[in-house]
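Subgroup meeting minutes
Present: P.N., E.W., G.H.
Scribe: E.W.

1. P.N. recapped why we're keeping a running log of single-chain structure predictions: easier to compare across weeks, and new members can see raw inputs and outputs side by side.
2. G.H. added today's entry (297 aa).
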Amino acid sequence: MCEPGNFPSNSIMPVSMLQGSTLFVVSTPIGNLNDISLRAIEVLKAVQVIAAEDTRQTQKLLNHYGITTRLSAFHDFSDQSAAQRLIRRLNNGDSVALVSDAGTPLISDPGYGLVAAARRGGLAVIPIPGPSAFVAALSVAGLPTDRFSFEGFLPAKAGPRDKRLAALITEQRTMVFYEARHRIKPMLQACISHFESSRQVFVGRELTKRFEQHYRGTLKSALSWLAEDEKHSKGEFVVVIAGGHESAWQEARMRKAEEQVAELRKEMSMKKAVAFISAFLGLSKNELYRRVLEQDR
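Output recorded in log:
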């Protein structure tokens, strides 16, 4: 029999054979309660405690499936002692299921510290795979899926958000973001300012829920879609944006360079500003100068 933490990669562990001292990372539905696996239900019934991001939210799921396992709060604001208490339980032979409000724990949700501590302690950490909002959106977006970059939530403040998007200008892979209702409009506007407005995008709203909606178009048309109906801005969003091409990167870099030249011209001549920015960004001085002149006409 395998010791905890040393399960062979090809082993199958029915609940009846589960050993103690195991942390299960359990995926739960992102909306529709029927999107839970039979294995997840079995594990949630078998463990000694369920560590939940929001016990009230998880209780609804447990009630739906008649699961009576004890709940313990574990979220982003939990202190180190909460993780330590769970690790002690694991070391004492209990098994723990880690769940988030919806989807797969640790994917833009709490749990990293607990999983890392369990790994450091040589404890078994077993995934119970299932729903994930970004995978659901990516699978129906109609954009390339052979390579993609999961970016999660962009920073809420404009400065850090712009810095992150600027770093993605040269990203060739399809990009996947999460966004909240009060930030979806400024998020798309920021994407337009860094990527070309014609970049293809898929917006998934309230995936798997009653009022689920999909929109596919350009970044510019997606903003128009949001403005068409106030309901389009409600709920939780997954935004899938096509990766860029080299010509698009160069154009985006030139546009940013033009903006920076405009700022520097408040303090120095146009020629000096162009020379400084072109050298700093590694762009053609003559091409940047030509574009700035065209703007002045």
